[in-house]
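Field reference: sequence -> structure
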Amino acid sequence: MKDYQSLVDITLNKLKLSIEFLEITKDLKNKADEEIFENVDVKLDERQEIIQTIQLLDSEFLTLFEKLKQEEDFEKNIVNYPKLSDYITHIKDNFKQAYEIDQFILPILEIELENVKK
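Structure field:
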């Protein structure tokens, strides 16, 4: 059961990071709305660091999940961890929201970054 709890813990960490990612994205949107482009590169770097950490967590999760999936009683045991599904749903929602905001702000930020380079 320790491995199942580890799955939950990994997913909870990813949830926290997805919340942080979404908050940074919302902050970037506010900055774009107000045409304040200071430290945008720092915020984008922070988001990239979060993505890299999430990729590591995904790798850990998949390795552990595949191991557990081989067990005979996997289907019976996994249902004892309903938070796992809840966390995954929230993570997906956070990234969906961030993606929708990105569709609006990234073109604006790209133009502004090009202007700054000039």
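Note: The longest helix spans residues 82-117.
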